[in-house]
Write a structure and sequence with these properties.
The complex is a heterodimer of chains A (about 450) and B (about 425). Chain A is mainly alpha-helical and about 450 residues long. Chain A folds into 2 domains: about 100 residues, no CATH class; about 230 residues, no CATH class. Chain A has 19 helices and no strands. The longest helix of chain A has about 30 residues. The radius of gyration of chain A is 24 Å and the shape is globular. Chain A starts with 16 loop residues before the first helix and ends in a 21-residue tail after the last helix. Chain B is mainly α and about 425 residues long. Chain B contains 17 helices and 5 strands. The radius of gyration of chain B is 23 Å and the shape is globular. The interface between A and B is large, with 70 and 72 residues.
Chain lengths: ~450, ~425
Amino acid sequence: MSDQPVELDTAGGDDGGPAEGQEEDRQRPALGRLVIQSVIEGNSLVVTTLAIVSAIVVGGLLIAFTDPVVLHAWGNFTSSPGNAIAQAWDSASGAYVAMFEGSIINPHSVAQVFQQKSLSVAFSDGAVSAVFNPLSETCVNATPLILAGLSVAIAFRAGLFNIGAQSQFIGGAMVCTWLGFGVSLPPVIHVVVCVIGAFVGGAVIGWIPGVLKAATGAHEVIVTIMLNYVLAYFLSWILGTSLMQRPGRTDLISPVIAGDAHLPLLLGSHLRVNASFLVALACAVGVWWLMERSTLGFEFRSVGANPSAARTAGMSVTRTWIVVFLIAGGLAGLASAAVVQGTDFTLTFQSYGTYGIDAITVALLGRARPLGVVLAALLFGALHAGGILMQAVTSTPLTITEVIQAIVVLFVAAPPLIRAMYRLHKATAGPAGQFLSKGWNG
Amino acid sequence: MTALTRPAGLSVSFSRRLVAPVTFLAFGLIDILGFAMYAKHGDAHFAFSEEFAKVTVPNLDLPAAATAYVCGAVSVALAVQRAVLPLGQAARRTGIGLVLFCFVIALLCWADVGQPVPFNIVNLLSGTMAASIPLILGALAGCMSERSGVINIAIEGKLLFGAFASGIMASAFGNLWVGLVCGALAGALLGAMLAVFALRYLVNQVVLGVVLNVFAAGLTGFLYDRVLTPYQNRLNSPATFLPVKIPLLGDIPIIGPVFFDSTVFLYITYAAIIVVQVGLFSTKWGLRVRAVGEHPVAAETVGIRVLAHRYRNVILAGALAGIGGAYLNIGSVGSFSPNMSSGMGYIALAAVIFGRWTPLGSLGAALLFGFTLELQSVLASINVPIPSNILLMAPYIATIIAVAGLVGRVQAPRADGQPYVKT
């Protein structure tokens, strides 16, 4: 039973990797034909795209049919069906247009640039920055998702479920914030020390489920979920003590971290995108190297694919579990550095937001591959960045982004559903339904 | 996961054997070093009757520090016994129970000394029953689903769906029973989603459960912001079920107010416990369900329809958990708030594992966690010198200790989480 690997690639053998290698041996078909064929067969990229489109459609229906104006119009559907449909369209498209303007590019700010006297004025008064602001916000929102998503992904590859990115985020955030305001260090060193502190703080919390699993067999799903709650309450407690509460405040907020602990901004003072984005991309490359090129990563993947075989081959399965959780925890801790040192500069009892849960959806959508995680995080980062503008402009609640995320992942996890919905043919290569579930017994 | 079923090596099984004694010892030391040494001088008073009860039981007074010392000594002795002597299963379980009991007594003694009013045990226990209702129903749902071979992590989402649907329907129709039925239906709906994605599309069931929880939290949160907040009065202010005292039984001292004076949800819970326990272990249906969960191929060979059984069980389990969610809303607070289940679904899941996938075992575990939940809120209300946030951590830490320290090696139903495809 433990022989079943956690294989996230639910599309079976019809994507990337070895299949492509075999393809090269044969005669290459023409590119156009290849594209059409892949669309018809529904390879993983097509399935993912269709899953995203479907989720957006479902989300749009939800937005439209919970809007009082739309519901009123549909109440009079028989008298004016055109109006009812138009209202529904307006409601959903309005929300998505605002989302697009908040996450990719806003035509109004582009127009502003051309109304300036000269290009230099446009640069100096921030009109150019305003054009790039949505993209910058997307990157800012994506950064913690990349790091936390890598954390979940690395555990997935080793056959472990890290539902506890939230607890590890909090662990890292507490260390990072404390180092940020409680310690004085020279400028550059301070930033680095805080970032390392975030990694260590997250790794310590990550170590707990790893070592408990190794020593007692406690299932990591239960332990990590419980730790999320434990750490959330611990954070609330410690923010109310003299250890971390901002002097003179009664609410749960830490002092502001020192200016030299801020991560440097990348594109001028008007845009929030900062060095943590580069750190996240570097981590993605690092994780790729670790998993694909290093001995340790080979052990991770072996343990994930088949613990018994890995043990027989002389690997220490329990040690691997602990190391995986240390690294995963550290990555989730780094996500907190991106938030604390990159944008917030302080810690509140809600700073952890929904990063822990979002990280799972990011890792699943990214199929637990580093590049996939980065792309998925950028997509969900765009959803969040755009969602904020959408909430401000159309008063559609930001929580719709969580719904869309969950639906995307549900669709992505079930390629047969997408294939059936869009009448795609079954993939020619690979078994149709790869056994990929893994139970409590391993 | 592997270590659950078989030792990963000698060192693991050795440290594994030490976990329980070390946990016992830790509890004993907390009893002695924490509660006994820091207890205020004097007696702790415990009351066993509600106010205005027909038959009263006299109060009990215990010298606080001395009692805590005794409790600590008992726990340490049990730790030594567990480490040295080979014990049977019954003795091991009694040991766990005794250590926990001693810990609670020591804690209560320490907390109660110097309180003006005697500590009311009956209120604590009846509160425990109430707090346990969603956990028990969730755990029974987990048992039903997992016994048939489908991992059920989506209990949390079903609780949320149940809470949301029951509240909005009870408000809109002005009828609590409509709310209750709709809560069950909403839970069953999420159960049906779980079943379809797990059984038809063969999605990894752990992943699926987590994603469905995200979906449920997102959807109910979105609808709360979008629909409930603007129409708070019309859609989010249901009445709540009132306690119904069972004649005669309800007047028995201690037992009456704890077990027979509660809302209809508690009685539904009793019925559910009996139905699931008897159903799973004493009926043809139960035998088939367990066969499907242990060895689907063999079950199919003798003509049992594997997928039909799984679909039915997962959807029925969803309805049970949905009722548990309805309790959170129309059985207790009478309004919906986002994420109001606050991890109870996951605690129920831990109860299933702690209870070794048996209804009665899960019931015991759920009661234990419910007790922790209730104890935390009671202690917070009598102003013990522990910060409230630390107290709030207690149920979750208790769950970790239970799963890691006390549960030992457990065996899930053999085909749990394995998709079944006819070949």
